[in-house]
Amino acid sequence: MPGKLITFAGIDGAGKSSHLAPVEQWLLERGHQVLVTREPGGSELAEQLRSMVLSTDMDGLTEALLVFAARRDHWRTKISPALTGGCVVVSDRFVDCSFAFQGGGRGVDWQVLEQLEAAVLGGVRPDITLWFDLPVAEAVGRRADRPADRFESEAVAFHARARAGYQRRMERDPHRFVRVDASRPREQVLQAVLEGLEARGL
Ligand code: TYD
User: Fold this and answer.
1) pLDDT by residue (tens digit) across 132-168?
2) Top CATH class, 4-199
3) Which of 51, 62, 93, 150 maximizes ligand 1 atoms within 8 Å of its Cβ, making it the mutation to test the pocket?
4) CA atoms within 13 A on the CB side of 6
């Protein structure tokens, strides 16, 4: 596809979302057409599924099915057409988060997730995944003053398993990952992000 898909990943509290607007601005200045979106969500149906997933108790497999259902609609109606049209799509979270949170965090079978991934995305992977990585204890400290959703209120061990899930994804597919040390001050993190994008041809 002519466009490029850039995804943001990380545990809750990594601070990734604050880099969306500066990255969008940077891409626009370089003459790209840009679509900024998020998961779970990004389409009308997917946003409805998002509010269920973030607020309603359910088991890990149900959660996985819902986030992949949301992803399917988001992919089909928004991301895939934008990539076909030559856009750079920047998604705040994407498929790796399902492996981290539902796979690592909740213990859903990795192979089941891989089957869902293949069915939903047909083998397409992000071109670049920015993994905002930091120790779990620091992430917990950063989000102490905000109201917590179902994931944010999980124990430290859950987030440690989620972090290990990202690591496992990166080991399988190292060329597309840019692991950014997100424990540094915000400007340094942004600089590392932009350098990573530039090094990969953006
Ligand atoms: P998040 O993106 O952190 O939004 P906000 O910044 O508004 O809190 O919240 C989305 C949550 O959904 C996050 O805790 C991770 C979780 N999630 C999954 O469990 N599986 C997924 O596949 C995705 C994309 C997100």
Assistant:
1) 999 999 999 888 888 899 999 999 999 999 999 999 9
2) alpha beta
3) 93
4) 24
Torsion of CA 105, 167, 169, 133, to 10 degrees: 90
Residues 82, 121, 125, 90: is their CA dihedral positive or negative? positive
Q: What pTM was computed for the model?
A: 0.97
Label residue 197 exposed, middle or buried (CB < 10 Å: 0-12, 13-18, 19+): buried
| Location of structure tokens 């604050």 | 18
Domain ranges, ordered by start, for the chain = 4-199
Tell me, in angstroms, the distance from the centre of ligand 1 to residue 154's CA: 12
Question: Phi first, then psi: what are they for 158, rounded to 5°?
Answer: -60, -45
Radius of gyration of the chain (CA): 16
